[in-house]
Amino acid sequence: MSIFAFICKDGGDKTALRSKLLIDHLRHIESVADKVAVGGPCPPTGPGDKRQFEGSLILMHAQNAAEARTLFERDPYYKAGIWDSIEMMNFLPVVGEYIGGQTWTIEDGKMKPAEPHRKAK
Length: 121
Fold this sequence. Notes:
Elements (H helix, E strand, L loop, with lengths): L1 E9 L4 H17 L4 E7 L12 E8 L2 H9 L2 H4 L3 E9 L3 E2 L4 E2 L1 E4 L2 E4 L8
Antiparallel strand pairs: 1-3, 1-4, 2-3, 5-6, 7-8
């Protein structure tokens, strides 16, 4: 099983269309929730940006890129063209709260894999 990152950017202000399709979008997300590692909207970061959201980020578990893309493209937001640009990449989580620490330790100046189920310090 692999993780695929979908980095989706809205083109312009899609607040009205997002609101109109929200329930259908959430129903879709519920139907694939067992495949979603994490996902959500990205509020604007620029000062004075009046949009509700600037885009979305979804990390999805799938056997391969084709499966991830198929699940993603069933989303009503995708079908309606909410996102003007979509970038899909393989994702390998190696550090953070999401994975419970980090995947390495440093011993004698060398990197070594961390023991399973152990937070490295």
